[in-house]
Amino acid sequence: MASHTSVIVNHRVALSGTNAHGAVATHRLDYVCTRLGAVREPTDDDILRQEAAEREAALGYISHRKGAVLDEGGNCALFDAGGVADYRMAKAELMADKGAILTSVVTVRREYAEELGLQTKQDFERFLRANWQEHLEQMGIMEPQDIRWVGAFHTNSDKNFHVHVISWDDSGRFDSLIPKVELENARQDLVARATAPVRQKISNARMQAREGLAADIGNNELTECQRRKMQQIIDRLPERGSLKYGSLAKSVPRLKAEIDELVENRIEESAKLAARVEAYKKVIEHHANLKGLKGSERQAYEAAAMDDLRARLGNAQLMCIKQEAGIVAEPRQRKAGGVELPEGERVT
User: Which of 66-70, 212-216, 237-241, 262-266 shows the lowest mean pLDDT across its residues?
Assistant: First the structure.
């Protein structure tokens, strides 16, 4: 299963006046768009953008905008925010650039690429066009209107898919190293964006597992011993106050502990419930991996997830208890401090 380390983002700053800066335009640009493994065919998105650009040009809206034309010879390895990037134009801009140039590689391990939805050139194009601009803005190194970048998707590695990205400031004002904190925060955010679809699936799986467990706990299928235990809890229910799990934890903690014990006993004696709990734990573990949690932070996250499950199951068991006791409505609570509220409003 995919984790936080399934996507790797590396950056390197080439300051103006250095050999590395000159090499970007004279060597690296050619390397990323011509080497073995660089995908040169235009994607469906590229073709649609080109057709739209041609229609706009025919109507007189635009002439020859950046990123709107296919390279002569059909070499469409380079792409940018607007479509297929013009190689000669990108090279000329890089050669004339007076500021720093940022070279980056975004890598996805092949075994997780399908799960993350990042395994084709079009996948990476869409991801970068949706996120790269904001990624650079988050570092605080370029103004939005000055950001320029080109990318090239490579499949030459048998272990990963990756895209090379070259970014520069059209104004030339960016010419410094990036503070480590800003760089790491932006990197973490980009990885989080890449893993967001999987995290959403995991969140849905967590909710389904939790609600499924609560439904099973609420089905009243108890052994005779468990029914006796439930009757003992009924006999000790408070006459006043809320009969909800969170309230009992504060007002009658011993009773809350007995409800927990009953739920745990039901899980231990039911293979179906035990399997559901194990599935829930695996979902939590996967989610923690995707979030990149470690050490005490991970322990706190997993503990909170189990506390949440315990409360859900405790409330489900309380519903059974109230049904068995014939409690259809809880006693009306006192008004909050004698405050008069308009009809339909409530104190929160």
Answer: 66-70
Q: At what angle do helices 180-217 and 295-325 cross, to 10 degrees?
A: 20
* Tally of CB atoms within 10 A around 272: 12
Rg of the chain (C-alpha set): 29
* Structure confidence by residue, pLDDT tens digits, 194-205: 988 888 888 888
Residue 70: its pLDDT value, please? Answer: 44
Non-local CB neighbours of 346 within 8 Å, separated by 6+ positions: none
Average pLDDT in the chain: 84
pLDDT at 274: 93
